[in-house]
Amino acid sequence: MLEYLAGLSAIVIIISLFSYxxxxxxxxxxxxxxxxxxxxxxxxxGWTFIGWIVALVWSVTSDNKPQTIVVxxxxxxxxxxxxxxxxxxxxxxxxxxxxNLNSHQDKIQNLKKLKQLLDDGILTQxxxxxxxxxxxx
Length: 137
Fold this sequence. Notes:
This protein is mainly α. The chain has 2 domains: 2-60, no CATH class; 66-137, no CATH class. It is 58% helix and 0% strand. It is built from 6 helices and no strands. It has helices spanning 2-20, 22-30, 35-45, 49-60, 104-119, 125-136.
C-alpha cells in the first residue's frame, strides 16, 4: 500500500510540475525567441495565478518578425536619382524627383504607387498629400 501511495504521489508531482511550467513548455515548442524570459517569469511568478496567466499569454503570442517591403519601379525611363527611403522604422516615404516625371503616364504610375503605399499603411495621409503635390507640380 505504501508503494502505491508513493507512485501516486510521484504522478501527482509530475502532473503538477508540468501544469506549472506549461507556459514554458509551450514557448519551447513554438520556438519563441524569448523562451528564457518566459521561463524566468514562470519560475518566479508562476505561483501567483496572474504571473502564470501572463506567462501563458506571452508564450502563445506570435513573435514580431521584420517585414521586407519591395518597391518595384517598372518605369521605362531610368531615374537619375535613386529613391530615398527611411529605413529606421521601415519605409515611411519616397522622395520623387520632379525631373523624372516627364510624361503624363509617369505621373499616373507614381500616383498609383503612392495610393498603394497609403492603402498599405506605409505612408501617412500627410506624407501622401506631400508626395502627391510633388508629383502634380
